[in-house]
Specification:
single chain; about 120 residues; alpha+beta; Invariant Chain, Chain I; two-stranded antiparallel ribbon; 4 helices; about 5% strand
C-alpha cells in the first residue's frame, strides 16, 4: 500500500501566486515562440512585454494597429505604416473600445484580428 502525504497536493497562497510570476506577457511569449521563423509575423513588444501599437508583417508588406494585448483595431490594416497614436485617440476607435461589452450582440460583419489568429491577406 502506498502512503500519501495529503499536505503535498495542496498549494499554499505563496506557491499559487509564484507560478503567475513566471508567466510571460502576451507579446513576449509569442515573440519568443516565433524566434527563427523565416518570413513569419514576429510581434513588436514594449519593455513590459505587451504589444507596441503598430505591428507589421514585413514579409506580407502590411501593418496594422493593436491594443496592448495584440487585438487588432478595426479598419487599420494597410500597406503603409498607420499612425496608430492618432487612430487610438480618434473618437471612432475610442467609442468602439469603450462600447465593446461582452454581453452585446456581435456584428458578424466586423472582423477583428489578433496575434493568436492566422494572418489572412
Amino acid at each position: 500500500m502506498v502512503s500519501v502525504n495529503w499536505s503535498d497536493i495542496f498549494l499554499s497562497a505563496r506557491e499559487w501566486c509564484k507560478c503567475f510570476d513566471k508567466s510571460e506577457r502576451p507579446c513576449a511569449a509569442l515573440r519568443k515562440a516565433s524566434k527563427g521563423l523565416i518570413g513569419g509575423y514576429i510581434p513588436e513588444c514594449d519593455s513590459e512585454g505587451y504589444y507596441q501599437p503598430t505591428q507589421c508583417h514585413t514579409g506580407a508588406g502590411v501593418c496594422w494597429c493593436v491594443d496592448r494585448h495584440g487585438v487588432e483595431l478595426p479598419s487599420t490594416r494597410t500597406r503603409n505604416t498607420p499612425n496608430c497614436d492618432a487612430i487610438v485617440n480618434s473618437e471612432e476607435v475610442s467609442n468602439y473600445v469603450e462600447g465593446d461589452d461582452e454581453d452585446g450582440d456581435d456584428d458578424m460583419d466586423i472582423v477583428e484580428g489578433s496575434a493568436d489568429m492566422p494572418l489572412d491577406i
